[in-house]
Amino acid sequence: MSLSSTVTVTVPATTANIGPGFDCLGAALTIYNQFQFAQLRTNTEQQVDITVEGLEADRVNRDESNLAYQAFVKLYEHLGQTPPPVEINIQLGVPLARGLGSSATAIVGGLVGANAFAGSPLSAAEVMQLAIAMEGHPDNVVPALVGGCRLAATTSEGKWEICEIPWHSDIVPVVAIPNFELSTAEARRVLPSDYSRADAIFNTAHLGLLVRALETGNGKWLRAALQDRIHQPYRQTLIPGYNAVQDTAIAAGAYGLVISGAGPTLLALTSSQEAANVEAAIANTWIEQGVTPLVKALKIDSTGATTKEA
Ligand SMILES: Nc1ncnc2c1ncn2[C@@H]1O[C@H](COP(=O)(O)OP(=O)(O)OP(=O)(O)O)[C@@H](O)[C@H]1O
Ligand SMILES: N[C@@H](CCO)C(=O)O
């Protein structure tokens, strides 16, 4: 099998949970990270040479602890092979630790890059299983790999069943990315380990309604469906100004506003008509609350990770 000498993997950001879909629902967004892998020619024991450029580049590790490299090694370990020495160039467009799936881009980039580098021995489904195992939950890595909005559920054999959730073209995702980080680990620590039957029923009903609302574009359903009792009530306190921004976004015409992934980015869903109003209202209110956000209307990426080999 002929092996590629350079592999470039482009991976979209993702927004996970979307209100009631904690740890099972996520969508790919039109912001991207790029990971380029090339053979490292060296006479030393050096295994990896990492360069990072773009947004917040100085915040990413350049040693063997780098998550994209860890994923690269993981795939070779899975194959029972020693990973080759590799040069990795990372171009960052997805802000780090903001609830937009930056870690998922690194995991997907490393696994997909290693698989292509090794001559594609694993199927897309096998790469997906490895990615979910590395991230610990499917809601970022699955849409990062295959694009679109995806619901993931385990089968009785413990595998993952992935279902595409159609996203109505008039529902616009607006992200408000604040100027501070919140690690997923920290945002998971504040969650309880048990929930009441009432909360379980509440989220089951709202997730069902959300799936239908996303598909049909029914605004009345969407307004009700974005409520959640599993993670948001516990995480809101980690995000200054959350309630004020939510109120103002809804007053400006958003169907609702939720925490993107583990936060602190906030995600408003709105119609294309109201998107500009909602963007301005969120930005002004969060600034009044002392937080400087970057607010952007995005689209759903329908492709997921793409690979170029040279
Ligand atoms: N491009 C990258 N290359 C290497 N490591 C990365 C990259 N992007 C993120 N990481 C690692 O992932 C960490 C952030 O992961 P974390 O799960 O806390 O946030 P997130 O993935 O951005 O948010 P969320 O999971 O809520 O969407 C970073 O601190 C860094 O260690
Ligand atoms: N479902 C995850 C997404 C962030 O990785 C969480 O909310 O913790």
Describe the structure.
The protein is an alpha+beta fold and 310 residues long. It folds into two domains: 6-165 and 300-309, Ribosomal Protein S5, domain 2 (2-Layer Sandwich); 171-297, Alpha-Beta Plaits (2-Layer Sandwich), CATH 3.30.70.890. It is 36% helix and 26% strand. It contains ten helices and eleven strands. It has helices at 67-79, 102-117, 124-135, 138-146, 184-189, 197-216, 219-225, 232-235, 242-251, 275-288; strands at 6-17, 21-39, 48-54, 86-92, 149-154, 160-164, 171-177, 256-259, 266-271, 294-297, 306-309. Strands 1, 2, 3, 4, 5, 6 and 11 form a seven-stranded mixed β-sheet that branches. Helix 1 (67-79) links the parallel strand 3 (48-54) and strand 4. It is globular. The model has no long low-confidence stretch (mean pLDDT 96). The protein binds adenosine-5'-triphosphate and L-homoserine. Adenosine-5'-triphosphate binds at residues 16, 33, 60, 66-68, 90, 92, 96-106, 140, 183-184, 261-262. Residues 211-286 form the GHMP kinase C-terminal domain. Its EC number is 2.7.1.39.
